[in-house]
Write a structure and sequence with these properties.
The protein has 314 residues and is mainly alpha-helical. Helices cover 79% and strands 1% of the residues. It has a two-stranded antiparallel ribbon. Helix 3 packs antiparallel against helix 4, helix 11 crosses helix 12 and helix 11 runs parallel beside helix 14. The longest helix is centred in the middle third of the chain and has 28 residues. The protein starts with a helix and ends with a helix.
């Protein structure tokens, strides 16, 4: 019941924030960035379900973003097709890399993901003639549902799309967690050997979770690219992957809502901290995370959920 009430509260707050971003156009971009980040963080939360932390999942967001940029420049596809293409490429890369990664756990898993992401980062930076190098790739604003729109209308349409994708992704992640495969994924964290004794392949289960994780990251990267109209190798840099893990810890990995709560807090703390203490916004975010680790180890979602349960019990 507590989770249901919290979900309603968060849904109302998100709706209010979206309405506010329409009333105050300058808020539209931060809200879009938060939703894009939340999609990627939802992917990392899937891996945290199995007790694994990836320090390289920014590579899938980067692949999704570059797929959008390349296709947008070469074929001038519609925004909806670009999102589908970027997400599909990330899913295919996740299936390929995941077939290798499912053999590893713990620090080896985290560092090997980091190694893959740094290879991608280096390739994007070195082959400047094709990828734009460190300057990245710009692309023209695409049509949306076959309609050419001015920037403000395009951002409004993109905001609606991002919100629908966020709701769908959150629902899909929670349905996955409640499914047989999702419960088996959680068992990878607690007792992988018992899974094998039951005749369930832990590697197959983990591979499925890894592909879902990569797909969500690619979806977030695709939306991010459309918001920016620009992609750079920094999307796949280890710092970006670290930010995604940071947001997952901040928001809480117990529920898909935690991904979006953390993403909104991160984006707006970053926005205002950068304005108030220029050049030291990382310090503000670091202090926020330190406080959260001591006050609410299960993240913001866990803190809110426990408060609601206490109120319900009283």
């Amino acid at each position: 019941m507590g989770s249901l009430r919290l979900g309603v509260i968060v849904a109302v707050l998100v709706a209010a924030l979206v309405w506010l971003s329409l009333a105050l156009p300058w808020l539209k971009t931060p809200v879009l960035m938060a939703l894009a980040n939340g999609l990627a963080v939802a992917g990392v939360i899937v891996l945290l379900r199995a007790g694994q932390v990836s320090f390289g999942h920014g590579m899938f967001a980067c692949l999704g973003g570059y797929a959008v940029a390349f296709a947008g420049r070469a074929w001038h596809l519609d925004a909806l097709l670009l999102v589908a293409l970027g997400t599909g490429l990330a899913a295919a890369a996740g299936a390929l890399i995941g077939a290798f990664m499912v053999r590893y756990r713990g620090i080896f898993f985290g560092m090997l993901n980091l190694a893959f992401s740094m290879v991608l980062y280096s390739v994007l930076g070195k082959f400047g003639g094709l990828t734009g190098g460190t300057d990245g790739l710009r692309f023209d604003r695409p049509t949306f549902a076959s309609v050419a729109m001015p920037r403000e209308a395009f951002e409004t349409a993109l905001l609606g799309l991002a919100l629908v994708l966020a709701l769908a992704a959150g629902w899909a992640v929670m349905r996955y967690f409640g499914s047989l495969n999702g419960q088996a994924l959680a068992a990878v964290k607690t007792n992988e050997t018992r899974l094998e004794y039951l005749g369930i392949s832990a590697k197959r289960v983990f591979w499925g979770g890894y592909v879902l994780s990569a797909t969500l990251c690619g979806l977030g990267g695709s939306v991010f690219a459309l918001v920016q109209g620009l992609v750079t190798p920094e999307m796949g840099y280890w710092v970006r992957s670290g930010e995604i893990v940071f947001i997952a810890v901040l928001g809480g990995s117990g529920h898909a809502l935690g991904a979006f709560i953390g993403a909104f807090v991160f984006e707006f703390v970053k926005l205002y901290a950068a304005a108030l203490i220029t050049g030291a916004w990382q310090l503000a975010l670091g202090l926020v995370l330190i406080v959260m680790v001591f006050v609410a180890p299960s993240g913001i979602f866990g803190l809110l959920e426990s408060r609601l349960r206490l109120k319900a019990a009283a």
